[in-house]
Amino acid sequence: MDEKRRGDLVRKIxxxxxxxxxxxxxxxxKEIRWTSYDVAQCNEIADVIELIRVLVDxxxxxxSARNPPSPRGPGRPPxxxxxxxxxxxxxxxxxxxxxxxxxxxxxxxxxxGLQEPFSYKTIERGYDKAAVNALLDxxxxxxxxxxxxxxxxxxIDGSGSPTRSRQNYADDRGRQRRKxxxxxxxxxxxxxxxxxxxxxxxxVGVSYKLVSSWHNTTDHSIGxxxxxxxxxxxxHSRHPDMAMVSGDGMFATxxxxxxxxxxxxxxxxLPRRNVTFKRRGVVEWVDMLCDLxxxxxxxxxxxxxxxxxxxxxxxxxxxxxxPLRKRLDGRRCTEDxxxxxxxxxRQLCYLRYLxxxxxLPVIMSSAS
Length: 368
Hints:
Blueprint: H1 3-18, H2 34-66, H3 81-94, H4 98-108, H5 120-126, H6 130-144, E1 153-161, H7 169-180, E2 198-205, E3 211-217, H8 228-238, E4 244-247, H9 254-262, E5 266-269, H10 283-294, H11 296-303, H12 307-319, H13 329-354, H14 360-364
Parallel strand pairs: 1-4, 4-5
Antiparallel strand pairs: 1-2, 2-3
């Protein structure tokens, strides 16, 4: 097939897919072990509290081994950042404001392994602490250890957590695209509002649905593409065996394909309708289009795995139907990150039963 016919064919397939006219054969739905699911639901709260304690303690040990703490100066000893982190995760899991979280702390402080309860003001100040955010980043790495080497296909997508009740990110995004002439025209910036979202870009494993990278911002002048590089590199650092990355048409650019190829993975991003085979120094771009022409069904089966990140974003929003409570930008970003981490913690608790995944032994035996 010559280059012209091949280009016409790939543009025809893309047009059919975008207009939902391509005869795609859907994958079979996965079976769910409902008995195990019932057991996981019954044990969820106890398992989540236990896993929060183990994760934070192990994260503190790993950070202390890499960066020994400096000698403490005079004055009243501060509350341990690890203790604050445990409470913030429990607060996010229960969806409680600061004062209610103090009550939860009085009830569960022994289960969380705390030295003693503390006030809601300490909880409030914890959202600003750099040490707490360092622990949260380490916890994200720890939650991915049980599936390291097992998870090889990833999906990336952006979303936003509202700061007031009458906001919906998907609706605002659709409205922005209609006004600006399509997804390609609106990729430069997140949608704006009277009170901005906390915008986030999450990378999610397709098989186990765990978040492998989470980056957010309150700056609506930048777009989802701005986080692609750091998201891919973070995911690769946690999953060196990454083999494929899928995402929506926003990421169908030569730089994105090149980066994915450099990390040893295969890109699956649906290009725009007037796509060409011009290489422009990116072999991965041409290879991706050739794969689409050679086997459209398999290519689309790979591409539609991007629904993993969309379903995880949806699950996080269903679990947290209320808007973000914080008013300062830094605290909002921390609150948003906690929602992603609590999703991972809860998902691991279910995977113990649904996928017979070894969670606690892997985390506790992880190297520093």
